[in-house]
Description:
Radius of gyration: 20 Å
Number of helices: 4
CATH class of the largest domain: Alpha Beta
CATH topology of the largest domain: TATA-Binding Protein
Order of helices and strands: EHEEEEHEHEEEEH
Amino acid sequence: xxxxxxxxxxxxxxxxxxxxxxxxxxxxxxxxxxxxxxxxxxxxxxxxxxxxxxxxxxxxxxxxxxxxxxxxxxxxxxxxxxxxxxxxxxxxxxxxxxxxxxxxxxxxxxxxxxxxxxxxxxxxxxxxxxxxxxxxxxxxxxxxxxxxxxxxxxxxxxxxxxxxxxxxxxxxxxxxxxxxx
Length: 181
């Protein structure tokens, strides 16, 4: 029997809009922890130390936040970006709406897995052990993708919230058990 999944969120990718244009050259010159090379990429990369993350800031006022482990941390990081903008007289009113685009979580099924058998028995899999030791298993009905390893460890990506992540894990375990039976 599988034990508790023990999924741990490793990274959240979220977007938000400040609803106001950002002068990136001015912003970059006020931030030591930023990179801005408009010839290579249209956004400014702002590194935040705590919680450790990176934010892409675009001149449109759109933000992409990566590296956080919770939505609360995303809010904290976006709040920090807004404080830094206020320091250079860019006043943003209200709270930007945060949209989680992707959650990456790791954990374990609690059981050893025969990846060769799973590649044959499950639909929506890719397994090329000479290229990579993990099996890619997609659950298209909830847009979740798992990387499964023979020791039972896994990585899940594609979900947008904790209930969806938990549901994906339940479906995975159910599908694995249906094959083992």
